Give the backbone structure.
Amino acid sequence: MCGIVGYTGKQKAAPFILEGLKRLEYRGYDSAGVAVQEKGGLKLAKKTGRVANLEQEAAKHRLTGTCGIGHTRWATHGGVTDANAHPHVSSDGQIAVVHNGVIENFDSIKKFLLGKGFTFRSETDTEALGNLIAYHYAKEPAANGESRLLNSVRKTLRHVEGTYGIVVLSIDSPGELVCARRGSPLILGLGEGENLVASDVSAIVSRTQSVVYLKDGELARLTPVDFAISTVNEGEIEPVIDQITWSIDAADLGTHTHYMEKEIFEQPAALENAMRGRFSEDGSTAQFGGLNLTPAEFRQVDRFMFCACGTAWHACLVTEHLIERFARVPVEVDYASEFRYRNAPLHPHTLFFVISQSGETIDTLAALREAKRKGYRALAINNVVGSSIAREADGGIYQHVGPEIGVASTKAFTSQLLLGAMMALYIGRMRDMSFSDGLNYVQALKGAPDLVRRVLTQAGHIKAVAARYAGYNDMLFLGRLSLFPIALEGALKLKEISYIHAAGYPAAEMKHGPIAMISERCPSVFFVTKGEMFSKVISSMQEVKARHGRIIAIATEGLELPAGLCDELITIPDCHEAVLPIVATIPVQLLSYYIALERGCDVDKPRNLAKSVTVE
Ligand code: AGP
């Protein structure tokens, strides 16, 4: 949520910052701004809307300085206006700051500063932060051998409640940036004669692959040739330098029109990457390197708790189904945002898991912390290497699917489903799953990428179906067992990118209320597969047809459906239960994508959303 970029070096800062902001736009796109140190003082350009608007605005200001900061905003405090866009400059003109997070005590800070003669131009909490830094800066001795800016930021942060990732510069300290984090990610990029900072590696990976992930409570001071890390309360600490293992190409659109399209079509490769090296030598189970639990310790677990938000929560529901089905161990699933507050009693031998693509979702991070506070071992399934969740979890599994840029999660979701299925196998094989069942299961998972490829060949057909349904305003998604969460996911995907109201239910629940929605104006998407639920789902479809509802069936290849029952048919290959949720997801992703295109929506940057939600 909100993107931050900072640069100090030998080259012009603005072009790099604007380029970085474009890469971070998926984190927030209400407004954007840039501030650069120039010989005559500070130059500032801010504009509501996309970074493209800011680029036009910045061109008018001739930004030539070599040290600057930029921001792309997802509004929390204050509306979407030029004045509320970051960077914010203190009323004495001394300090510029960009901020991601929420300053909870900004009201009392503001009252204090008003009493000291500071003035305010925006409705944001960030401006109070900038003014408070300026207040301390003015009182800080000008030359005592230490950084005046660093000391004033440190003093300020001791009075601040809430969350922040900030980057600050002062007009009279050329080439110096000070950053700090509590609750909002910041990564330093270490270059040759230049140093960088951003809220996400995708903004800096074009310049360097050497990075330092700042931890909560840490500050960093950057100059073109040096950097140092310290804490809010005390002196310097030894940095840990990491290397990013993917290149900028992974975050490029390539031949695709949208990131969402690219990421949907990347799924076969993403699944291959997520499973690589994770099957045992005898081919009968899964193996994970980073769980930090011995098989004996794992064997002691007699209950699992999974927490997440949004799409990742749907992955938890599928994982629950598969672990209970194949390993016969009880699983509980909760929304991370609820779990963190409801003080749920946990069974003593519970193993706690969170699932998060970004690893920065604040509710999921808080749920993880709550479980750890209660003394539970807490693991994570997470995509972004070095994220807050990855660092705070006791162990976990990286998804290894590369950067996911489209706001609507696609490849991250199906890889979470895969890893959930592998977890069910791992636990199942420790318990009662036989060697030969394990072999079959592994073979099925290995075949998943090819099955997904097969479904993707139907993109043209699904596009044609989408064109016929783009005009509706309501839609139901209905499935049973492990496909109920996929019905929820289909509805969420459609809602978030096309703004069509949609809801997902277990198919049999429809008659307990949602059936009231059914008419020729509300179509339904049904998942209908071979097996024990077939005839039950057909009955639910008949109930819809009897009420003149149109039906899009996503059905197993070769199934004989009653004549005239469905208006549209999309087929999926017959497959193992562990793979079915993955395969069934592809048609709803494509359907949502093409419907959103038909409706002229901005699929990669849907209104009001941001890729990772780092505020409550
Ligand atoms: C997915 O399409 C959504 N944009 C959203 O629900 C997302 O899955 C949720 O915010 C959780 O994000 P995370 O996986 O990064 O924690």
